[in-house]
Each structure stands twice: as structure tokens, then as C-alpha cells.
Queue: 4 jobs
Job 1
Amino acid sequence: MKGRNNIISRQKDNLTYVAVTAAFVILMILQNGGILKRAHTALLVPVCAYIAAALALNLCVGILGELSLGHAGFMSIGAFTGIVVSESLINAVPNTALRLLIAVVIGAVFASFFGFLIGIPVLRLKGDYLAIVTLAFGEIIKDLITCLIVGVDKNGLHIVFNASGAKTAADLHLAEGGKAIIQGAQGAVGTTTISSFTAGFILILVVLFVVQHFVKSCTGRAVMAIRDNRIAAESCGLNVTTYKMIAFVISAGLAGAAGVLYGLNYSSIVATKFNFNTSILILVYVVLGGLGNIQGTIIAATILYVLPELLRAFSDYRMLVYAIVLILVMIITNNKKVILFLTGLGKKKD
């Protein structure tokens, strides 16, 4: 029985890879054929970033069982770290694909590091307390980045912390040919955009691989055991804090990688983009897709991100329609009678 379940689970994972690849191929054909409008193609990279971020949050909320409201903060760390790395390596690494790869890796590492730092005090908390602290972390990171002024020249990076708000990019004292990368509240301006839909597709596959293999690993099983019954897990000798830290750090790193992809898709971006509302938006994708449901998270993130654009025909009422759709989906997905009805229809077709 156990072997059969493993086979079914493996087939489900493989089917997910196939479905994501098929969607990528179809969209690339439509894009190259000029069928997709420019407004639609502009959504391809951001939706990939949000899918990756939602999968990362699902690892924390669905698999680990801890509510985090600070994943937008990890995305912002990845985004601005990636932008600084990319802009600093323009001359040293002219190949955009390689430069993007380096930026994603370094952005993920930085986000993981901050995930470790915040995880030390946070993961000893439970329930609402953990959610509140991670929410505060996201807001603090946003404010800190807003105070940063960063530039690069032949002498290397120059960083000024503009806590007073009186300093400008001129205070970096850049040499001739230098460039201001982050300009405080103005954010990153004049960034060379190197993100692509192909890179987004690869990132989704990598995040899928990490999450699915983590769930099936001994560490992942230990994490789920802690989620289901912490006391029983401790009685079996599991170090609860250590396993929770591993899952949280991986989740933060994947969110940081998603942030790099998102940040390098725009020529200008501000820290306020990654605020509390962004964290809630990603959480909505996870909840509607199903806690711990990898495939559901991908579908929910895709539909809910694209939906506002598709509802532009409703003009000023499109966000109202969007909210109504969210409410209906929540009611339907949590109604046992509706689920049984849909299941019955599926059995009749079989």
C-alpha cells in the first residue's frame, strides 16, 4: 500500500512538471506568433515570480504549519540584492543569462540569511505571535531599504544610510562613470531589465523540485510530524526548532529568488511595492490553492494574478468583481456539499 502511494505521488509530481512545461510551450508559441497582446506578455514574468513566491510561502504555511506574513520582505531583499548584483556586474559579466543566474543565487542566499536571523526568535513563538513578528519584519525591511542609497563605480560599491532623509545620490561621491543603483525612497531607477519568461519558467521548475523533494525527504517528514503534533514529535526526539528553522530558511530563500526575478523585470521599482498587501496577496494564493497543495497553489496564483487584467473591461468595477470572485471561490472550496457534488459528477463521467 505504501509503495502504491509513493508511485501515485511520484506520478502526480511528474504530471505537475509536464503541465507547467506544456503551459510554457503553449504561451511561447502564442507569444512568438504575436497572438498575445503586449499587455498580456507583460504579465508572464511577474506571474512566474508570484507562483514561485506562493510555492515558497506554502512550504512555510502549508508544510511547516506556521503563518508567516513577512514573505514580501524576503522578496524585497532578493529583489534589491539582485538589482545591486546585476548592475554591479554589467561590465564584468556581459552575458545576461549568467548575470541573472548569479543575481538569483546571491539574492536567495541573502534572503535565506535574513530568514535565519529572523527565525532565531520567531520560530520559538506560536500562532498569532509568529504572524505579528513576521509582519513587523516585512515592514522594517521595507523601511530600511527606503533609507538606502547605493551606487557603484570603478572603486566598488558605495552605500549611504539615509535615516534623516536629507542625503541624496550625490553623497555617494561616485567616480566618473559611476552609477547610483538605489536612491532611497525613489527605489532602484534605471535598472537594466534582464528577466525573461524562460528564466521564470526555469525558476518555477527549480522551486517545484526543491519543495517536492523536501516534502518527501526525512527532514520534510519530520517537519510535517511537528506540524501535526508538536508534543508527539518532541517525545520522539525531534529537535523542533532546528527542523522548523530548516523549512523557514528554505522558504525565505525561494521567496528571495522570486524577488530577484520580479525586481529585474522592471527598470524602476520601489521598496513600498513589497508591503503588507503583497504578503497578504501571496497568502491568498496559498489559501485558495489549498494549504500544502502544490498544484493548487500554481493554479490559484496564475488565475488570481491574471484575473484583474482580464477584468479590465469592467473598468472601475473590476476590483469589485475580483473581490466577489474571491469570495465565491472561498465559499465553493470550503463547501462540502459542492465538493461532493463535483466529485459525483466526476464519477459519473468515469
Job 2
Amino acid sequence: MGKVIVIGGGAAGMMAAIQAARNGHKVTLLEQNEKLGKKLYITGKGRCNITNDCGTEDLLNNVVRNSKFLYSAFYAFDSQKVMEFFKEQGLAIKTERGGRVFPQSDHSSDVIRTLQKVLQQEKVKVQLHAKVADILAVGSEGRSVSGVRLKDGSVLRAENVILATGGSSYASTGSTGDGYRFAASLGHTVSECRPALVPFETAEKWVKDLQGLSLRNVSVSIRKGKKLLFEEFGEMLFTHFGVSGPLLISASSIVNDYMEDMPLTMEIDLKPALTEEQLDKRVLRDFEENQNRQFKNSLSKLFPAKLIPVIISLSEIAAEEKVNMISREKRMGFVHLMKHFPLTLQRFRGFQEAIITRGGVSTREVNPSTMESKLVSGLYFAGEVLDLDALTGGFNLQIAWSTGYLAGDSI
């Protein structure tokens, strides 16, 4: 039985503490906030998308960076085991579209309560308002962990330390990047950290007129010059600054490497179920029904009311033009616009709006079978502090549970 200190009381830290305690160790969980699971509380819009009900290979396929590193962690504690863990503790869960798993109650607080209950059962000592200043290590070559020093100057000794401090997103929850500083001070490489799973700002100012408008069943493509970077079907949202919603949040992780090369061009196919020829026939039918009306009054069946003034302004047809006077050429241009509605993506929003952080502690310096540092013995990593990120749908929390479990289990 040894002493284990876990730094960070988020998803990865709590799971790591539970598993280390189940292995018979004396575990202290240090959290700088006034309560555990602050970021977990706001995930999934407060509903907490616990994991994704899919096979291990699908989990790996939804990891954007360093997916091979997670092979052992995912196989040790996959999404089925995560669901079993919570169900065994009495948390009722449900699966929604896309395999997304939520607590039956739709309250993230129930997930946190469940974890707190297990921490108590396993006799984990939880210290709140405990801000770590440094991780202590002994030896010059082949260094090993000896404990931590807190901001108040007190020293806690332990043979093993699990670093689960999170990334830099949502700093108000305590993810202030401290973990990167601790890792770097012990010789670890930390790659550049950027916001990921984050909305975009656009060059077009008219997006403000569409603020709050959600488009479902559209197709979005993003290009750098002629190179196609992203193409997907789903739901998106206009905001006062640009675009967001599930499609764009996922796109942000895929196009992240091109962030320096912004702006990127984006096109929305507003009618992806129809070819241009089929759409033209549909428009012709609408025009025939409204042939004596003005163009602006003939579009209610095609678009939400908010979108009509914007799409008219982007078309070559005057709002007041009578429908029966619109030329075939203008009509075909209008059809093309519906299939290629253009936007210019200028930049990402900041860490305050990012769901996760891209970048972090290099996975090359961490043993994927144990989550232990290859540079400092007794130092383990779990969760977002590592250079790992995945798409939305419960995959990032699965990374937290799996790496936390494996780190705790390997001690």
C-alpha cells in the first residue's frame, strides 16, 4: 500500500483516484476549486454526455490526435465498462441519437454525485481549495516523484502523483494550464495549446441578422483554396459573431491545423437532398404558384423567415422583382446559391468558448500501457492535460475516464 496524490478533481482525476484506492492505496485528491467536477457540471449543456455507446474501434476513430496512444486505455476501460460503472452505482442512464449517453435525469450533477459517493466509499481523502505550486521529484538522473508542494507552502509526500489538471478551456472551472507548467518543469515537452471544439468567427457581418437561427439537415463543406478539409451533414447555428452548432464544433477540430492559414471558405448546401436540377424544378413550382407576387414574398416554403432577407441580398434578384419576370439565368444562379451558400471563416473563438484544448503533454513521453511518465517514475497523466482530443459525442469524456482508470489501475 502506497501513497498516491491526484491533482485535479475533474472526470479523469476522480476516476484515477477511485481506481488507485480500489488497488489498496492511500489516495489524496487535491482540487483547487470549492467543489469537485466543475467542468463536468457544464458539459453537454449541463446534461453531461458521459460517453458514446459504440465499439472500441469507433471510439478510436473519433479521436482526432494521437488515437493509437489510447489503444490500451480504451481496451482497459471502454464505453461499455464506463456505463457499467455508473449503472452499478445506481445512476440511471440513457442513449440518444449518435450513441450519446446521458444520465436519465439530464442533470450532470447526478454524475458528479455518483463519483463523490464512490470516492467516499473508497476512503479517498478529498482536499478542496488545495492549489498545487509544484510537483516534487528526487534524483538527477532517473528522477522519481516525492510529493507536491501547495501554494500555502505545505508539502504532501507520496510515491506516486497523477496529474489530471485538465487543459486551458473554460478557465473559470479551474482549467488554467497549471498542469502544462508542472509537466514542463519536470522535463516534459508540451505542444502548443489551441482552442478545440470551438465556434468560428466569420468575415460576413450579416450573420448577426441570423443570430439564433438553427439549420438542420444541411451539408457544410470547408476548403483551403481548392483543398477540401471538411464535409459533413447535420445541424448548425448562426451566432452574433459567426457560426457554431454540432457541425461547426466538429469541423473546428478537423481544420485546426489550418488555423494559421485562416481565412477558410465555407459553403452550406441548404437543400442537400436535392440535386440542382431537382431543386430548380422545385423552385419553378413555387414560382408558378406565386407568379404575380414579388420575389421576397415567394420564398416562405423554401426558407425560415430570418434567412429570406439575407439570401435575397446574396442573390442577383431584386426583392421587389415580380416572380414571372425572373429570367432562367437568374433563377439558376439562385438555385446555385442555395447549394453553395458562402461564408468566410476568419478565426476561432477563444478558450472561454472552447469545449476542449488541443495540444498538451507529448504522448511520446508517456507509456501508453500505464499512463506513467517515461521521464519521471511515479508521475502519471490522465485526461485533457495530454495531447489528445476527439470529436463531440462523449468521446472526450471517454478519454478522461479511460486514461484516469488506467493511470489509477497501473499504480
Job 3
Amino acid sequence: MKTLDELRQEINAIDCDLAKVLQDRLSVAQAIAAYKIENGIQILQSDREAEIYRNFLGNFDKDLEWLARAIYGTVLRSSRALQFHDQAEKDVCDSMVKLVKNAPQTLAPVYTVCYQGVPGAWSHSAAKKLYPNAETISVLTFEEIFQAVSDGRAQAGVLPLDNSTAGTVDDVYDLLIRHDCMIQSASPYPIRHCLLAVPGATRETVKSVHSHPQGLAQCSRYIKAHRYLPILESNTAVAAKKIAESGDTSIAAIASRDTAKLYGLSILEEGINDSECNQTRFVSITKNFSVPKDANRISLAFRLPNQSGALANVIGLFSYHGINLLKISSRPIPNQPWEYCFYLDCAIDGLNTNVFGLLNQLDAELGWVKLLGCYPEQTL
């Protein structure tokens, strides 16, 4: 029996041969890409790939075919990623790549910004932070923000997209698909919830708490510990305003310290959110697409066929192109049971051929993909 060192030496020798073969294959793949680009031929040729698969797998025993398929699939997808990369570098791409390359780098001025709720809402605070010199307009629903931006009543809208404790705001993700507005910027905002009630109320007199579903979710342990009845409201500040107008000491609101001042409420307890590091990621949307020079994030939505490995193949593309995938989530597609739309965010270090190669490949290989924004993500 060979020693472990002898076997490792064999592996090293095989790897050297494998590296040379892979280098040769990638060089030929690039030559094929050049020919396809020059002659206007699509990069992805599904019939040809199926033929290559069959020929390659025919060299393996049946008990190893599944593993050979996985390994060779990586080789094929990597070669294809290289070809899409070269096509993007030659600047002969369509759709998303052209959209990003041709987008203005200067942001249009924002005189009016729209938010959901009433003054004192977390969205109102975020809107003032993102656009300190703009007039703010309040609306009742998230969809009204998209409508106001689409018809020009506001140049921008600010919405909560994710929370570090309660997760995604699903309605906003759905609206990003249904409307043609684009994400222009994003910023996390620290959320420190307070228990608010009318003067004279105490934690013992309170029987129920009112707030937005996200506010209730972010304080769920506190609510359960005090045996309060959670009541859904459209907005945290709407809840506070309702409590102030009621004069009822048995009901309270979960909202911000600023809201208490605004509506004359007492702060029964501060910092009641389950997590001390509680942040909401707010995005601003605009009607016109732009890509600022400091853009460091891209958001996309796409749909996939219900096939084994479909999602894994898409996720793998980000690694092939050297792009850091930050987040992926899914939402059901209306009227299509058990079909899903996927949303993802990725980090970019400027616009380069890696980014364009990825967008080019996604655009070509997915049946439906939508660019939601290429924008700067601020940090706290």
C-alpha cells in the first residue's frame, strides 16, 4: 500500500496536469467568445452545452457520473462567465448593461420627498435625514409613495425595506416589482422604540399596545412579558396620534421619543425593542434612474424555473464574477401558486467589467430579471 505522502504527490502531479488543461480550455473558450461577439452569436448555446455534457459524462463510470456532472458543470458555467465577461468588456451588451452604462451620474434635485404615515413616524425622520432641505409630504400607504413619485408629485419617496430584528418589509419589495421606480440610495437608521401613553397612564394601567406590524414585531418579547394585547396600526406615529386623541389610559403606542413630544404623550419606558442594536434600512426611490459615482450596491429581482439547481446556479455566478452577494430573499408570485420571485443585493467596488459581466450574464440567462437600483449604501 502506498503511503499518504506518495498519494499526495500523485494528487499534486494530477493537479498540475489539470491546471494546464483548464488553462487551455479557458483560452479556447475566450477564442470562441471572440468569434461569437464578432459574428453576433449568442453566448449561451444550450444545445451545444447539452452535447458537451453527454460526451464528457460518457467517459465516467455510472457510480461517479453524478459527481462528474457537478464538477464539469462548474467548468462549463465558469467558461460561460468568462465569455460574458469578455462580451461586456467589448461593450456589445444589451438591456441592463446599457442601462447602467448610459445612466447619468448626477442625481436630479429633490425638492419634495414623500413618506408613509404622519409627522413623527420613523419614515418621516429618515426622510429628513436623507433629504434635509426637501419638503416632506405624508401619505397613508406605501403604494401612494410610488404613485406620487411616478406622477411627479414628489421627486423622491422614502420607505423602510429591512429591519435587523423583524426582517423584510414585504409590501415594499412587492411594490418595487409592480412599479418602475428605482432605488436611488439606502441608509440604515437606528430604531429605539418607546412605550407611549397619555399623561396619567402607567405600565400597569395599559392593557393593549398599538403600532405598525414591524414595531410590534421588534418589541414582541416586551409585549409578551407584560401581557399586552398587540393592535396593528398603519404606522407608529399614527398609533401615537390615535392614543393621544383617545385620552384612554388603558392603551399605549410603540413609537419614537420624538413622537411623544409631538403628540404630548408620556414615555412610560424607553428602549423596549428586543434587540439593543435595532436598525431599519430605509431606501429612497425616484422615477429616473441614475448611477452615482459612489454607488456601492446593486439590487435585483428575478424569477427562476422550478428546476433542480436553478437557484444555486444563479448564486454561483456572483462568485464567478468576483461579486460579493450580501442578501437574498424570496416572495410568492401572485396568482402563480408555489412560484417565487427572488430579491438580492450585492456589493460592488465601482462599476467595472466584473459587474458588467455579471449583469450581462444574468440578463441573458434568466427568463425575467429586473434591475431595482445601482446606488450608494450609507453606513451609520
Job 4
Amino acid sequence: MKHDHQAPLGVFDSGLGGLTVVRELRKVLGHEDIVYLGDTARVPYGTRSASTVVRYAMGCANHLVAHGVKAIIVACNTVSAVALERLRVDLDLPVLGVIEPGARAAASATRVFKVGVLATAGTTSSGAYVRAIAACSTRVETIGQAAPLLVPLAEEGWTTGEVPRLAARRYLEPLACAGVDVIILGCTHYPLLFDVIQEEARAMIGNHVEIIDSAHAVASEVAGFLESRDLLREDSALGTTRLLVTDLPKSFEQTASRFLGSPVDSAEQIDL
């Protein structure tokens, strides 16, 4: 099926966390139009069963397909972990996830062949990062660490101070003990806590530790992918970002602005 290079990119996530991916896409692909769908009515996906996640993901993806998107970026680690293959089989357009780009970046960055992954319980137990890193290099050992408290901290805007620092330290401890030198932020909420995580990791492991923001890795890979498929938008105008959500909480604009890194005035509420 031929897709028009002028068509928008579709991005979806279980909530607003995926806007960190949109923020990076905007930096690298400023001329592209983006349609973002946040399933805010059913967030979080990280605690749900795999079959439920697949069902929700298909609903989100099909809605974006109806908007005529040329490719779909799954800006949710949980969906990337359990539903990506199914989406690729069922949809007649390119589907890119957030796990493989982060895994590739980490595998090439580690010097001691030990990579730590901070993620939600669902992503950690799926083993998706272990598999993705093993596919890049069989020498690299992957140590997963569920860090569920970091999600509400990011959403509440508690990104500095004692509370996030103590939470980060607690989750980083097992990774520091394991001797990792690279840590992947395996959840789209975590980049908001990048500074505090990096500070604590350096204090515990050393200044050589590298923190991988998968949102950044994803944006670079999407840019390369579109170029290789001749799908880049040929327009000098700045692209637009359209926000669709399944529920509009009062705090939406504030939270969305925090994730996107720029003011958000409105979103359309949709039913899936």
C-alpha cells in the first residue's frame, strides 16, 4: 500500500507520557505533521494483562489509521513489549516501537557489557528489553528494574528534590550493585526525571555511567526510516501537532505541557 509522504505521523501511548517522544520527534522532524493519541481513560497499561494491552493497542492504532497516517510510532514501552508484532502483522503500514532503538543505543554504549533498564512492572516482566539487547549483542547482560513510583512523580511534576531523589536511589541500587555502566529509561515518563536519575546514578556508579533516553533514540531512528522509504514530508512549513485523548482530566493541559516541553492549549476528546 502506497502512503503519501505528506500524510501525518501517528503516535500513540496509554496516556500522556508518549509526548516525550513527540517532543523529540518535533526536534528532529520539524516539518512533519503529527497526530497523537493518548488513551487517558485507560492509563496505565503497565499493570494490565498482555491480551488486554493488545486489544487496547489495536483500538488506538486503528483510530490513527482512520486519520490517514503514513506510519505509526508506538510511544509506549508496554505496548512495544507485548503488542508490536501483532500490530505489524495486522496493519498495512510501518509500525515502530520504542524498545528496539533504546536497546541498540545501549548495546553500542556499554563498555562492561552490563546494561540496566528502569521500566514499569509490565515491561520488565515481559523480558522485551532482554530480548532486544540480546538481538544486538549476545555478550551484553541486561538487568531489569521495575520503577513504578517514577510514573506518578513525573505526572505530578515532582521532578526535583528529596522525594524523586530517594525513589531514584532505591531503584538504582540493584543496578549499581550489578555493575552496569549504561541505564535505559524504559518508560516514556522517565525522561522528565532524567536529571535526578543521572545525578543519583553518577553518585552511585560514577561519572562514566550513561543514561539512555529512548525517546531521543526513537526520533533518530524514525527520521532515518522515513528518509530510507522516501516518506519525508516535502514542505518548508513547520508541522502541526494534533492531540487526541480518550478522557480529558482537569490537569490535562498542565501535564501535557510538562511532557511536551511547550504549552498545550487544547485536545480533542474521542471515543475508542
